[in-house]
Specification:
2 copies of one chain form a homodimer. Chain A is an alpha+beta fold and about 250 residues long. Chain A is built from 8 helices and 12 strands. A 4-stranded antiparallel beta sheet of chain A has the order 1-8-3-6. A 4-stranded antiparallel beta sheet of chain A has the order 2-7-4-5. In chain A, β9 and β10 form a beta hairpin. In chain A, α1 packs across α2, α5 packs across α8 and α6 crosses α7. The longest helix of chain A is centred in the middle third of the chain and has 27 residues. Chain A starts with 20 loop residues before the first helix and ends with a helix. At the A-B interface, α4 of A face α4 of B. Chain A binds a DNA duplex (30 and 30 nucleotides) through α7.
DNA sequence: CGACGAATTGAACCTATTCAAAGGGTGTGG
DNA sequence: CCACACCCTTTGAATAGGTTCAATTCGTCG
């Protein structure tokens, strides 16, 4: 029972063509927005979505392009990024099953605010902005849910602004590790494993620093026994320890 | 016709008791959320709001307190801030007439995400979270508008994350000056005057830096003829020049 | 096993912070 | 109406935290 691959990460990817009707209904039903809708309505909504499969590093939508569609992650991991002229990109969020992205602004001639890149093989449900707008008009409770989600994201974003403004790289990375382990953590032998292929570069782009600095901090955390990490994966061992670093400065 | 005060700032503050019914209806009608509602509904909604007057530096709500109310700025300027243990606070936004803050999360036992402090004498309309929730349920288009607003703010917040992560202090301050002049700018003799009492400390808290660094950058901008500035006020002279600095690094 | 890409580590450099002191506008009280 | 005190602002010099560039090591996959 020897494991050939040292990387403990294992994302259960549904092959694009395996996003069956049943699976799609299940996913839509799990999405916070549609949770309470009767199956009849879910089935109708389902017909409005078209599914697409994407490979790792494939771009789903480009920041700046006309925002014609809205997407829901059916399976896999999608990175929301924003570019800079200096080439130093920023990783805003990593999305998973049931999460929404794309054109949330219901206005006319808007553009996508972020670039969305697949981090793993993923299945995505897409819908025209108009159709989605129609859903919102037809099912007011859905709008409330979307508002809730957006509001929560706004608060996380503002929290991140606070951290970028006031905390050290060390604290920010500690915080990010805790967030990711809460969102993607699975208990494994190596610790609370973050089920996302996560490079030092990704971490750096989330923390607003360089891969080298991220690496230094991670080495330090590893020496202190707070985490366990290898190439493209991270597991949290001592949550309390990281939490302490979080606001230490 | 000699001006006693050197500061060119002049915020037209409505005295709290001057927020008459007519004025309140006008303000509510101007707020993006209620813009298209018929007067009858506006009058009803108006009865749900209670008005309060606040003095400069007075706190409207504390981050962390139970989020029972939602507020709309009727008149004046309200700062949205977030604290850090290190004492270095972050200034998230400056709100003006018609803007919303407080408990946007429609969930149960939530707390205010930000502390709201009056920057000038202000008049604020407040409403119970429950009542507001009822408005949203009764008038679905209002929910859509609130969603739009929230979504726009989310994108601004993410843009700020990008800047904090990738740009220099100089670029960030240039960007903030442009944003503020777009939002609060009035053409005056001194240039495009930002109609907000704005200290170096405020600027620093918006840019995620120290008052000293902000001061250095501002001096530099002034020498370069890009801005005009004094104690607690700033006017933009050369927008194009600032724009160039914005993404220069 | 070999090769590629990721991660680590070191050293020089630089931006921004910190601490300290001096200068200047604003408003208050005599 | 002037003078004083307060606070904001400016500027300087030393320091620290983070970046950059480069070289090396290590892990993973073909």
């Amino acid at each position: 029972m020897v494991q050939r691959r040292k990387s403990p990460i294992e994302i259960e990817t549904t092959e694009p063509h395996l996003c069956s009707i049943d699976r799609r209904l299940e996913i839509l039903g799990q999405a916070p927005f549609f949770k309470d809708l009767p199956e009849k309505d879910l089935r109708y909504i389902n017909t409005l979505f078209k599914e697409i499969g994407v490979q790792p590093d494939e771009v789903v939508c480009f920041s700046g392009d006309p925002a014609e569609r809205l997407f829901i992650v059916a399976d896999g991991r999608i990175k929301l990024t924003r570019h800079t002229l200096s080439g130093r990109d920023v990783l805003l969020d990593i999305l998973s099953t049931g999460e929404i992205f794309g054109s949330l602004s219901l206005l006319g001639d808007q553009t996508y605010p972020d670039t969305a890149i697949a981090q793993t093989q993923s299945c995505i449900l897409q819908i025209g902005a108009d159709d989605f707008h129609r859903i919102l008009e037809k099912y007011p409770p859905v709008t409330l849910r979307v508002l809730e989600t957006t509001s929560t994201r706004l608060h996380s974003a503002q929290e991140r602004i606070r951290q970028l403004s006031a905390l050290s790289v060390e604290s920010r990375i500690a915080h990010i590790l805790l967030l990711l382990s809460k969102k993607f953590g699975k208990v494994e032998k190596v610790g609370m494993l973050i089920q996302v292929p996560l490079s030092r570069e990704d971490l750096a782009a989330m923390a607003g620093t360089t891969p080298e600095s991220a690496s230094r901090v991670m080495s330090q955390f590893q020496k202190a026994g707070l985490i366990n990490s290898g190439r493209q994966w991270v597991a949290v061992i001592d949550q309390a320890g990281l939490l302490q670093i979080t606001e230490s400065e």
